[in-house]
Amino acid sequence: MSTGTDQTFETVTIATLLDKVGAMRKEGYRLVQIGATRLPEQVELTYSFDLDNRLANLRLQLPAAEARVPSISSIYWCAFLYENELHDLFNLQVDGMAVDFHGHLYETAVKFPFGSTKAPVAKPAPAPAAGQPASKATVEPAASSNPAQPVSTLDFRL
Amino acid sequence: MARTIIPFGPQHPVLPEPIHLDLVVEDEKVIEARPSIGFIHRGLEKLVEKKDYVEFVYVAERICGICSFIHGQTYCQAVEAIMNVSVPPRALYLRTIWGELSRLHSHLLWLGLMADAMGFESLFMHSWRVRERVLNIIEATTGGRVIFGSCKIGGVRRDIDADGFQNMLAELTQIERDIREITKVFIHDNSVKARLGGVGVLSRQDAYDLGCVGPTLRASGVAQDMRQLGYAAFKDLQVEPITRPEGDSYARCSVRCEELLQSIDLIRQAISKIPAGEIAVKVAGNPNGEFIARTEQPRGEVAYCVKANGTKNLQRFRVRTPTFANLPALVKMLQGCELADVPVLVLTIDPCISCTER
User: Fold this and answer.
1) Which H or E run contains B260?
2) What separation in angstroms does the CA of A27 have from each of A51, B45, B155, B173, B337?
3) 3-class state of residue A72 by DSSP
4) What is the pTM of this model?
5) B300-309, strands of its sheet edge to edge
């Protein structure tokens, strides 16, 4: 029986990602999660898989600027949800998603890209008119390089 | 036949929390379902950059109001694994007891919601009446009913004395009697069977391939339960996954009914075996490393990915909640269903949007 501490991290590249994920699918692994970590110069992706309660992680590092990654949803269909999340919250471009929400999975008040790599720019508050209290500084999200697109017809078939 | 898009949610009588589905229908048959979330996205993962790793336990616990304790526990387990903290055995047992009480009140809440969705109002009221008794135990032992505030890195904050355990056992006897009465209706009543049987069938292979977790997965015949990892006190307790082969809404309901009795049994096992001793150890320094902790919440496996770089603030904190993992299966189940079955199908995965919108 696994104790939950059995977990491995294996580094992969974009070139080997799909082959490695395909091999895990053949071995019977279940996709647990896909997550991203924003590092100073890179975006670090972690693909976690489970087989008999053993956790195997694939680690992929991408340059932070214009990070792109191929979708694994052709291998694990359910990955589309994690990949749309990466797109909406981390501004990561995922190519070939089985279901692409075009930035509309997360219907947040702050439109895509919610997690732009650029920090929000704080504008100084305008000088208050005489007799008026000072207002708070307004914060605008950084400009999007990929403006939201309308949702296209989605294919949810496995 | 012309297609129509019917918006379902984010405000809907059957949804306690907001999620939106665009239902593409032909006549009364659902052809596609397009989910969208984010209506209450709180950015709690990002908050880890502002709160130090010790006080972040409070944030983790507030991810959800139903399985709050297990959220805090899983976070603590991840940090403790990174820092090689040996949690006292008594604290591990207390965590197990509070975690199973959480599962009890979560499943009873779900049974009530399902009864309400079926129009079975008296069953809804009975389910929630019993749930109140569980909440009373939680309040008596932790001081809170929703947020326990009992878990901390290195152990727990509160102990339960012998009288407290005796009172808990006596109350559990009454609760078990009530649960058996209620679940008898959920499992054997003809109207419940007719409403849930054969609705939203998810095959064993689909459930596994779609990454399902928890009762949704086990109701399709896959015997997977993170408690088998042996975290907390589960390594000393007898816990076998409860499964059903049918994969329909009735099976998902039955699994939760049986898990109620399983949780009571686990609490009794834990109380009979709990060792004496300390309930916490002092933790010094900052974490440096990475760990993915997984536990079994009422809705299934939760994964806490924690990465630390030796400072008081974690470098990354990510939660993959069970509802998020079950959403692809919901989309799959909705394809081809009758429009009238949509509320039932949405409920059968026991969606927790607070968890999803962490």
Assistant:
1) helix B249-273
2) 9, 32, 38, 45, 32
3) coil
4) 0.87
5) B288-297, B300-309, B316-320
Nearest CA to CA, how far is A77 from chain B (Å)?
7
Which tokens sit at A132? 């008026």
The residue type of B188 is H
Interface touch B303/A78, C-beta < 8 Å: no
**Residue with token string 């109350």:** B171
Mutate to test the interface with A, among B17, B36, B77, B319 (most CBs of A within 10 A): B36
CB-CB under 8 Å, B291 with A156: no
Residues 6+ apart with CB under 8 A from B45: B316, B317, B318, B319, B358
β-pairing verdict for B155-156 and B151-152: antiparallel
**What stretches of B9-157 show up as alpha helix (H) in DSSP?**
56-61, 68-83, 89-118, 121-142
Report CB contact under 8 Å: B37, A154.
no
Can you give the pLDDT of all 358 residues of chain B as single tens digits? 788 999 988 888 887 788 888 899 999 999 988 888 877 788 888 888 888 899 999 999 988 888 889 999 999 999 999 999 999 999 999 999 999 999 999 999 999 999 998 888 999 999 999 999 999 999 999 999 989 889 999 999 999 999 999 999 999 999 999 999 999 999 999 999 999 999 999 999 999 999 999 999 999 999 999 999 999 999 999 999 999 999 999 999 999 999 999 999 999 999 999 999 999 999 999 999 999 999 999 999 999 999 999 999 998 889 999 999 999 999 899 999 999 999 889 888 888 877 877 7
Burial category of B266 from C-beta neighbours within 10 Å (exposed 0-12, middle 13-18, buried 19 and up) = buried
Residue matched to tokens 């100073």: A40
Q: For the residues of B87-111, what is the DSSP string, one character each?
A: --HHHHHHHHHHHHHHHHHHHHHHH
Å between B321 CA and nearest CA of chain A: 9
Q: What does the block give as tokens for B69?
A: 């304790």
